[in-house]
Hints:
The protein is mainly α. The chain has helices at residues 30-44, 55-60, 69-86, 92-102, 104-108, and strands at 6-7, 14-18, 24-29.
Amino acid sequence: MNQPGVKSMKSNPIITVQVAGGAEIRLGTATTFRFAARDIVQFTGGSSLRGGMSMLWGFLDGDQTHLDGERAAAIAREAAEFQQLFGQQLTPRANRLLSMIATFSAQAK
Length: 109
């Protein structure tokens, strides 16, 4: 049985999320997502830009449920802001993931 948001692909499933209107965004394989999320969280020490846990960090930590338009847009704003400020210091896979997450804002409108 597959988890919601995870499409079977042998032993390395594809992580997907759905935003308002039913638009589906693929975030890559579970392995790639996990490593990219780890890169981002390790870079920040697990805190948001303003300290404390943010919606983006909750999303990266595994809460890809209830991605309504408002929450998706907030996550996308944080991802875009973080990438703009720190993108040059992140790994390419972390930057790719942040770019994909930033597309939530366009999909959530």
